[in-house]
């Protein structure tokens, strides 16, 4: 997986979530807190999601075949979409069910120091993971806002990890609030309400991830800056005098298809046109290295009267 795939952020999140999941399940066993159970399942689902992202990145590196001539770059999009499904079903729906059950049948939290201690530990660990994801994202997001980065990023891993870590931190704060209110009032209802809020939060994040990944699966064009670079590189003013129309498509996060009909002079020979196309392809690859597949169709530029 390339650096833009956010491997460090994924591994950091995986390690943090596995440790946190174990701690949360231990806290649930001693305290009976439904927030701890929901958060434990949340961390376990997040760990599985990071595993899916790593698998998707590995599978995407396979060489193109006759059956898949454009390669397997979109495997990363498919596995990211699976992450949103897991987050919705395993994380969100389970938390809502558990919260409903706790509200319906509330009971006091036992051994309060277990959930409080684990939540504080989890917040520290998730903050470290979130910081790693932010650091890697800052290296590639440029001047984009965080919302623009999540919506426009062609590599899905970092937006997924960012949203997961953000959801985890907010979820931990909700769990801490629910547990604290339950302990302060002696009413386990607050623990159930906190669990329910965690479920709603996870479902919202899953829907956002699904929507963004769906757009990538359908096929997105190159970014505005890359399109401008490609257009500028195509025209040399001598043999290639203009662009009649052009289409771009991401075959994967670091693989771009460029197809264009270019205008050439009517008196150019076939050899001249062939050399011009080769030169244009080289200019495009120099300007936008991820342009791996390029198809250029020459058309005669009619002389003006």
Strand content: 5-15%
Main sheet: which strands, in order across? 1-2-3
Tally of strands: 3
Helix content: 55-70%
Q: How would you summarize this macromolecular structure in one to three sentences?
A:
The protein is built from nine helices and three strands. The protein is mainly α.
Describe the overall structure.
By secondary structure, the protein is mainly α. It has nine helices and three strands.
Question: Can you lay out the helices and strands and say which pair or pack?
Answer:
Layout: H1 7-31, H2 34-59, H3 75-104, H4 113-141, H5 146-152, H6 157-185, H7 189-218, H8 224-234, E1 240-252, E2 255-265, H9 270-287, E3 291-301
Parallel strand pairs: 2-3
Antiparallel strand pairs: 1-2
Helix pairs in contact: 1-2, 1-4, 1-6, 2-3, 2-6, 2-7, 3-7, 4-6, 6-7, 8-9
For this entry, give a set of tags.
305 residues, 3-stranded mixed β-sheet, 9 helices, 3 strands, elongated
């Amino acid at each position: 997986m390339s650096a833009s795939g956010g491997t460090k952020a994924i591994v950091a999140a995986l390690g943090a979530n596995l440790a946190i999941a174990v701690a949360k399940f231990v806290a649930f066993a001693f305290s009976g807190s439904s927030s701890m159970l929901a958060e434990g399942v949340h961390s376990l689902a997040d760990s599985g999601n990071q595993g899916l992202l790593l698998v998707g990145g590995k599978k995407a590196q396979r060489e193109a075949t006759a059956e898949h001539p454009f390669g397997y770059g979109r495997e990363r999009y498919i596995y990211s979409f699976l992450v949103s499904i897991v987050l919705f079903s395993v994380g969100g729906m389970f938390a809502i069910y558990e919260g409903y059950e706790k509200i319906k049948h509330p009971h006091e939290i036992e051994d309060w120091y277990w959930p409080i201690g684990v939540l504080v530990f989890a917040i520290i660990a998730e903050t470290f993971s979130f910081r790693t994801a932010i650091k890697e994202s800052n290296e590639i997001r440029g001047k984009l806002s965080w919302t623009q980065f999540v919506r426009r990023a062609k590599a899905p891993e970092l937006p997924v990890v960012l949203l997961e870590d953000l959801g985890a931190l907010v979820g931990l704060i909700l769990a801490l609030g629910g547990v604290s209110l339950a302990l302060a009032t002696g009413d386990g209802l607050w623990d159930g309400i906190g669990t329910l809020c965690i479920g709603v939060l996870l479902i919202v994040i899953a829907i956002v991830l699904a929507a963004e990944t769906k757009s990538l699966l359908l096929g997105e064009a190159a970014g505005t800056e890359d399109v401008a670079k490609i257009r500028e590189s195509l025209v040399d003013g001598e043999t290639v005098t203009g662009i009649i129309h052009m289409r771009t498509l991401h075959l994967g996060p670091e693989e771009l298809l460029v197809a264009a009909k270019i205008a050439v002079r009517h008196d150019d020979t076939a050899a001249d046109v062939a050399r011009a196309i080769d030169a244009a392809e080289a200019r495009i690859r120099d300007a936008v290295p991820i342009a791996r597949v390029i198809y250029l169709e020459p058309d005669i530029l009619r002389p003006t009267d």
